[in-house]
Amino acid sequence: MYEIGASGADILNFKYGMRVGARDPRTAKATDLNYKFKYILTNELYIQMKRELQLMHFEFTPLVYLGDDLQVPTARYILRTPDGGDLEFYLICHRDDGKWTKTLRFQVEFFKKLMNETKQQFILVILVSDDTKAALANKIVQLGGFADYTWFVTDNDLYNPNLMLATSFFDIENDEKQYFDLRSESN
């Protein structure tokens, strides 16, 4: 098990009934259900990545600055590739709140500007609930001109016991999902 952030113990208690450490007796800061669900999904992603891939770095809610602009993606992680290189990812986890498409537009614009101005190479991974949301997110990413550096993963792929996470990341070309195999050297 892995505890992420201040709410990690609450998630482990809620999902698995595991009490971890002593909690601060003061009233906890209120968090909405969507935010807690993002923690749970990110925790599940971490567990599967640690088990299936060579995870070198994981950071929950990193602060990413570009001048005065700030973005706080859900997570940042670095994987060691089969040929020995490092591949950096920023994870954005979106749930079905009313403004997620507008928020995604701003996030795509920020990360596109970050890559162009800093020459930093990374993959933007968008975690959404299902294929329909992935298709909509793909249209937003294409309009933003960042489709070449964006992958998707869905809740269905993440929680399907018949799939491995290493082969669950995909992009969408001509309305068709193209899966990647993160264990092969050709990626």
Give the structure's gist in a few sentences.
The chain contains five helices and nine strands; from the N terminus they run ααβββββαβαβαββ. With 187 residues, the chain is α/β, with parallel strands linked by helices.
Please render the helix and strand layout as text.
Layout: H1 8-16, H2 33-52, E1 55-60, E2 64-66, E3 69-71, E4 75-80, E5 86-93, H3 100-118, E6 123-128, H4 131-143, E7 150-154, H5 155-159, E8 170-173, E9 176-179
Parallel strand pairs: 5-6, 6-7
Antiparallel strand pairs: 1-4, 2-3, 4-5, 8-9
Helix pairs in contact: 3-4
Into which percent range does the helicity of residues fall?
25-40%
Question: What global shape is seen?
Answer: globular
Rg of Cα set: 17 Å
| Total strands | 9
Structural class: alpha/beta
What does this protein look like?
- This protein is an alpha/beta fold and 187 residues long.
- It is 35% helix and 24% strand.
- The chain is built from five helices and nine strands.
- The strands form three sheets. It has a five-stranded mixed β-sheet, sandwiched between helices. It has a two-stranded antiparallel sheet with strand order 2-3.
- Helix 3 links the parallel strand 5 and strand 6.
- Helix 3 crosses helix 4 (131-143).
- The longest helix is centred in the first third of the chain and has 20 residues, at 33-52.
- It is globular and about 45 Å long.
